[in-house]
Amino acid sequence: MTGRISAWAYAAGVLLVTGCGIAAAMALRPGFAATVRQVTGLEPARIAAPDSFYTVRVAPLFDRHCAGCHGARAAKGQLRLDSFAAVWRGGRHGDVLGKDGELYRRITLPQSDEKAMPPDGKPPLSKDELTVIRLWLADGARGDVPAATVKDAPRLVLPVTIPQMNPQDVARQRAPLADELARLQKRYPGLIAYESLASADLQVNAMLAGKRFGDADLQALLPLAARIVRLDLSGTAVTDAAPLSGLRAVTHLRLAGTGLTGAVAPALDGMAALKVLTVTGTNIAPESLAGLRRRGVTIHGEGDDGA
Amino acid sequence: MKDPRLLLTDLSRIQAQTRRHFLGWGTGGLGAFFLNAAMTEDARADGPQTLNFARDPATPLSVLPPPFRARAKRVIYLHMGGAPSQLDLFDYKPVLARFHGHDCPQSFLKGKRFAFISGIPKLLGPQFPFRQAGRNGTWISDRMPHLERRLDELCLVKSMKTDQFNHAPAQLLVHTGDPRTGHASLGSWVTYGLGSENQNLPGFIVLVSSGGITANAGKPLWGSGFLPSVYQGVQCRSAGEPVLYLDNPKDVSRAQRRQVLDAVDEINRQTHVQFGNPETVARIAQYEMAFRMQLEASDAMDIRRESPAVLERYGAEPGKTSYANNCLVARRLAERGVRFIQLYHWGWDSHGTPTDEGVNVGLVNRCRETDQPTAALLADLKARGLLEDTLVVWGGEFGRTPMWENRGGQEMAFIGRDHHPSAFSIWMAGGGVKAGLVHGQTDDMGYEIVQDPVEVRDLHATMLYLLGFDHQALKYPYQGLDQKLTGVKPARIIPQLLA
Q: Which end of chain B has less neighbouring CB within 10 Å, N or C?
C-alpha cells in the first residue's frame, strides 16, 4: 500500500526524533542538560553573590589556573570553571565538587602524575590557593557565604596591575607649566624631569650641578613649585636663606653634604608636604628638627645610624 | 634662497646615504613618527604600551622618565658568583640536620640530572649553627653576623628557581634573562630604558673583586647584546686608575687633551655630515664623556676621600682590590646618580674539591670577605637616605644540593654540595621592596620548593616594576621578535615582595 502518513503522524514523528535528540544531548552534555533544565524552570540558575567567598577568592583562582582549558574557548572533559553555575554543573563524569571530589583530587596530585592539574608543567596552585579552595569545598561550595566571614582564609594577594595612563589627561595636567618648564630645562639641562610618563609632577636633581647650584638657582625654580615633589640638593651651595618654604609640594628632600645649619629649620617647617628628609653630613642639629619629627617626617642621617 | 654650495653639500650627503642608513633612520625616524601617531589614537588599547626610547644620538644616556612612578631609581646588584649555599646561610633545615649522613632517598635522585653527583650520595645537614634574629625571628646562619643585624631591612626570597644547572648559562639567565650569550643584561635594559642621571659617569658600572675572576660567563654578563653598545656595562678597577687609559699621559695637560679632542670631534663631525650615520654622533659623545670622566670618575672611585670611620665600617682598605672597597665605591656611585652598579664576587662554588671550594673553608672565607661590607653598605645607604630609592639585590645563579657531593662516586676531600637549580635563596633591600619579609618555602630537606616559587623572569619582572616599567613594554625589536628581558614565557610580578 502506497499510503501517505497523516500530517499528525508526521508531526509526531518529528517531535519524537527531536525529543530523542535533545534527550541524547542532555545525557551526553551535562552543560546542555543544565541549560535546558534552567530554561524550563526545572532547576534554579545558580549565581554567586558579588561579595561571596566564591566570587572574591575562588573564582579568580579558577580564572587564572583553569579557565584557559575549562572555559568558553575550550571545555576539556566538558568541564567549565568560568562561572558559578558551570562549576556546579560539573564535567563529563558529573559533579567535581565536594571535599574529596575530583576537582580537589586533581589539583593536589603530585606534578609528576599525568592526571595532575594544571597539566603540562604549568605552575601548580600554591599552598595558600589550595587552602582557599579546600575551605570553600568544605563549606559546601556555596556562593552565598560572604568572603569577610571566612576567618581561616589565607591573606588575599592581588596580582599586580600595571598602572594605565591616558596621554591626553597627562598632557592637560602638564600644560599650565609646560612653557616655564621648557625654559628652565634649557637653563638647567638634565636637572629637572617628570617623575614618570604618567605624571605632571617633577623631580629636581640639583645634586648633579654641585656647588654651581645656589640659592638664586632654587629661587629661579620656584615657578615650578606646585609640581616639584622630589628635590635633591645634596652637595649644592644652598644656604640657610634658601627659599625652601616656597616648595610646598616637595615630599622628598635631600640636603646631604650641604653647609646648612639649624637655622634652616623654620624654612623646613614651612614645607607642608614633606615626608622624607635627609640631612646626612650637614650641621643641622637633631633638636632643631623636633617639629618635623612630631609631624611624622622620616629623617635620615641625624645621629649615626650608619654605625 | 639657499646658498648653492650648501645645496651641493646636501646632495653629497644624500648620495653618501646607503640603504642601510635609510632603513636605520627609518625605524627610528619615520617609524617613531607613525608609532607616535598610532599611540595617541590607540593609547588605551589593551596590551602593553608602546614606549618611545628615541634619543638625540649625542646624548644616548639622557634621562627618560619611567612609564609609571618608580619606587627605585637605581640598582646595586651584588652577584655572588659560583652559587652560595642557601642551606648554610638562609634556608634553615633542622630536619635535614637529623638525617645528616643518611643515604639520599631514591625519590630525590630519580629523573634528576646533576653536575657531578653520581650513585647514591649522603645527605648533608646545615654546616653552621642557625639562629633567629630580626623582628620576625628570621633564621640566619652564624656566618653572617653583620647582615643578621640588618635582617629587618631584607626581603628574603627562599623559593628562587632556575632551569640551568651550570654556572655560565645560569649566570647569563640571571643577568640577561636567557642562558645563551647575545642578550642584553639587566643593567643595559635599565640604562636603555631610563638613561642615567650623571652624564659625567657611565650609567652602568661594573666592579669585580675576588682576584679579578669575574664569573664563569665573563663579560657577556654586562654586555648590551642586541641593544646599542653604549648601554653596555663599563668595568672599573677599584685600585689604581678606575678606567685604563682615561688619565692623560705624563706631560700632557688637560688643555692639550682638549685640543686633540676638538680636532677629532671636528673630523667626526665632517664624517657625520658626509655619511649621516648616527653612530658617528655617538662616537663624538663617547669622547666627550671620557673627557668629563677624567675629572669625575677618579673622584667617584677614590675611597681615600672617605673618613677612617667609614673605611673601618666597610672594612675597606684604599689601594686594594676587594669586595669591601667595591661596596664603598658602589655607595659613592649611587650618591652620584649612576643608574646601575653591578658588583661581582666569585668563589661560592662549594663542591668540596680543593680547599677553597669547601663549605667548611671557601664558604667561610667568602662570608668573611662579604658579610661586613654588605651590611655596611645597607646601613650606609639607609643613613644617607639612599635606601629609599636604591634597590639592592644579593644572590648567586642557583642553589646547592642538600646532599654531600660525591664526584665520581668518591667522597670529597672537603665538605661540598653540588649545583641545585630547583631552589635557592636571594634577598633584596631598599627601593620599594617589603622589608623584613621571608617569601617562599622549600620542603624539610630544602630540596624542592613547596610554596610560592619565583622564577628568574619573575624576579626580573618585579625589579623592572619597581623601576617603573611594565616588563612587557620594555622591549627592543631584534631578529623579528620584540626582545624582552623576561623573554617569551609568562613572567609574574610578585605582589608579596612589594612594600
A: N
